[in-house]
Design a protein that fits this description.
3 domains, alpha/beta, Conserved hypothetical protein from pyrococcus furiosus pfu- 392566-001, ParB domain, 4-stranded mixed beta sheet, 9 strands
C-alpha cells in the first residue's frame, strides 16, 4: 500500500496541535499500527456493520459538530487490497463524505476477517442506541460464520449474560413493522412490546406514527393499544359523577349504562376533574 503522509491536508478538519495529541492518545488506547489521514474515496463499506439505521436528526447533529470541530475520534479501518475497509465509525465517515471532506483521520490496522468482524460488532454492541433486534441479528451473523460457537461462548465474548441473548430473540418474533420501527429508533422496547399486541399491520403503523410524532410515553401508548385491542377498561365513572372506580366496585354497579363512561388510564378521568374512589382505588 502506498504511504500516506501523516501531515494533515488542507481539507481535513483537525488542527496540527490537536492532531498530535490525538495520535499520542489513540496509540496508547488502541495500539494502532498506523494513524493517518485516509482519502474517504478509498474506504469501502463494512460488510459486517450491524447498524443499518442512522436517524436523520442525530446525523445532522453529528455533521454540525464535525463541521465546527472536526473528526475528534478517528475511524478504524483495515487494509483491503490497495484500499481500506471500514471497521468502526460509520456515522463519522458518512458525515465527512456529506461535508465534502476528502480525507479523514483513521487508525489503520491489519485485521483478518474474524478480527474485523469481532471488532466491528464489539464497537457497536456497547453503544446505548444499538437495539435488541440489531444485537440478535449480529449474534446470528457470527453464529452462521462460526457454527461451533454456543450462545454462552458468544455472550462471554461480548461481555453479556446468556439470558440477555435469549430475551433479545423475542424481538425477532414481533411483527416486521414493529421490528423496523424499533431498529429505526422510532419507538422504544417497551413501546414495541405493547404495539406487537395489535394484529392488524395498518393499526400497528398508526400507533407507531403516533408514538413517534406525539412522543407518547409508555403509559399513554398502553392506553392507546388497550383501546385498539378492545381490552376491558380498568376504570369507569358516571359522566356527571365526581369519582371514578374500578369496574368491580359496588358503586360502579349503580351507574346506569346510559351514564357510564369507560377510561383506559387514570389521566383520562383526572382531566375531567374526577378523583379516585376512596372505596376501591
Amino acid at each position: 500500500m502506498p504511504d500516506i503522509a501523516v501531515t494533515a491536508p488542507s481539507e481535513c478538519e483537525c488542527t496540527p496541535s490537536l492532531w498530535q495529541r490525538i495520535v499520542a492518545r489513540v496509540r496508547g488506547l488502541f495500539g494502532a499500527e498506523k494513524l493517518m489521514y485516509v482519502p474517504v474515496s478509498r474506504i469501502k463499506d463494512n460488510p459486517f456493520q450491524p447498524r443499518e439505521y442512522v436517524l436523520e436528526e442525530l446525523q445532522e447533529t453529528l455533521k454540525a459538530s464535525i463541521k465546527s470541530h472536526g473528526v475528534i475520534v478517528p475511524i478504524i479501518v483495515t487494509e483491503h487490497a490497495d484500499d481500506f475497509m471500514l471497521v468502526a465509525g460509520q456515522r463519522r465517515l458518512k458525515a465527512a463524505k456529506e461535508l465534502g471532506f476528502t480525507h479523514i483521520p483513521a487508525i489503520v490496522r491489519r485485521l483478518n476477517q474474524k478480527q474485523m468482524m469481532e471488532m466491528s460488532y464489539l464497537e457497536n454492541l456497547h453503544r446505548a442506541d444499538l437495539t435488541k433486534v440489531d444485537q440478535v441479528i449480529m449474534f446470528d451473523r457470527i453464529r452462521r460464520r462460526y457454527p461451533n460457537l454456543t450462545d454462552g461462548e458468544l455472550a462471554a465474548t461480548m461481555g453479556l449474560n446468556p439470558d440477555d441473548i435469549s430475551k433479545a430473540r423475542t424481538f425477532l418474533d414481533m411483527p416486521v413493522p414493529v421490528q423496523e420501527a424499533l431498529r429505526a429508533g422510532m419507538i422504544g422496547e417497551e413501546h414495541a412490546v405493547l404495539i406487537a399486541q395489535i394484529k392488524e399491520p395498518e393499526h400497528q403503523l398508526e400507533v407507531i406514527e403516533l408514538v413517534y410524532v406525539e412522543k407518547l410515553d409508555v403509559v399513554s401508548a398502553k392506553e392507546l393499544v388497550d383501546r385498539m385491542t378492545h381490552k376491558d377498561a380498568p376504570y369507569v365513572a358516571a359522566d356527571d359523577g365526581v369519582h371514578f372506580h374500578s369496574p368491580a366496585c359496588a358503586y360502579a354497579g349503580l351507574i346506569p349504562n346510559n351514564r357510564l363512561k369507560k377510561y383506559w388510564s387514570r389521566k383520562e378521568p383526572a382531566k375531567k376533574g374526577k378523583i379516585p374512589c376512596m372505596n376501591c382505588l
